[in-house]
Design goal:
Layout lengths: L39 H6 L1 E5 L2 E2 L3 E3 L6 E2 L1 H13 L3 E5 L5 H6 L5 E2 L13 E16 L16 E5 L4 H14 L6 E5 L2 H9 L5 E5 H10 L6 E18 L3 H16 L2 H8 L6 E7 L5
Length: 290
């Protein structure tokens, strides 16, 4: 079931210097664009970003349960200022993000969205960080799970539609090929639901993005609820998802993200959440190779 919650942010004007007195005319049939690169109508109404808003420290709600915050949200506000528009967030279940984008309910996806070659068939990605995957485990970790090979016979919670499901399915196949029990895979609508299964004992582990799960393990119950096992060699890019037929929006986002890197905002936001290690030197487009 989809849950939507829109939060309006402050607008900011983009000052453009050195422009000619007479702007170039758009090609026949093309949407008029502003000097910032956004179509004029999109700049006027603002960009709507879809996100789960349940994956701290990337996108989540303040304690009031209504105000978005986190790495992605703060970067979005800085990018909006550069673009001279506003970026608001609407909440969706992860599996509902791409249908919402395709249906025109949102303009971009700014969630913890892994850039993959398969997803590139439907989306363009503006990649802004790179990180890996981690197992979230009970604090006592009674089954002593340390990696995917240790999950044979265990119950695993995942987020429906996530790239991590394929990783667990392969691990389960390896288990049965080696004469061990398969992994039971529970697919949940949100990361919060998947984490709760580990907390209440219905799952032995949850696999998700490293910065999110390290943050959760550190902050939940003063660090006494969960433990973690980082899966080495599973790094991937996280990207802003943009419709394939909106290259002008993609390129405008690249320029605005570069501006946040140039003025130091990008680095400050990541440092605020202890995530300096996942930073990129520059924005990338469709950088995934698998």
């Amino acid at each position: 079931m989809r849950i939507a919650c829109t939060v309006i942010t402050a607008t900011a004007l983009l000052l453009v210097a050195g422009c000619s007195d007479r702007p170039a005319e758009p090609a026949p049939g093309a949407a008029a664009s502003t000097p910032g690169g956004l179509p004029a109508d999109l700049k006027a109404r603002g960009i709507v970003a879809g996100a789960e808003l349940t994956v701290p420290p990337m996108t989540f709600f303040e304690p009031d349960g209504r105000t978005p915050t986190g790495v992605n949200y703060e970067l979005a506000q800085a990018m909006a200022e550069s673009l001279g528009t506003k970026i608001t967030f609407q909440q969706y279940a992860f599996e509902g993000l791409q249908p919402a984008l395709k249906g025109g309910k949102i303009d971009i996806i700014f969630d913890v969205l892994n850039d993959t070659r398969q997803r590139q068939q439907q989306l363009d990605f503006v990649d802004y960080v790179k990180s890996g995957n981690t197992l979230l485990l009970p604090a006592e970790n009674p089954k002593q799970i340390r990696d995917l090979a240790g999950l044979c016979g265990a119950t695993m919670s995942t987020v429906r539609g996530s790239v991590q499901i394929a990783m667990v399915e392969k691990a389960s196949t390896d288990c049965t090929a080696g004469g061990k029990q398969a992994i039971t895979i529970n697919q949940l609508p949100s990361a919060a639901d998947a984490r709760l299964q580990v907390q209440n004992g219905r799952a032995d582990a949850f696999i998700g993005n490293t910065p999110v799960l390290l943050y959760v393990a550190k902050t939940a119950g003063e660090g006494k609820v969960f433990s973690t096992a980082v899966l080495e060699g599973t790094g991937s890019y996280y990207g802003i998802g943009v419709p394939k037929d909106k290259p002008e929006v993609r390129d405008a986002l690249v320029r605005s993200l570069q501006q946040t890197m140039d003025d130091g905002t990008y680095q400050k936001v990541l440092a605020k959440y202890g995530l300096e290690q996942i930073a990129l030197d520059k924005p990338l487009v469709n950088a995934a190779t698998s």
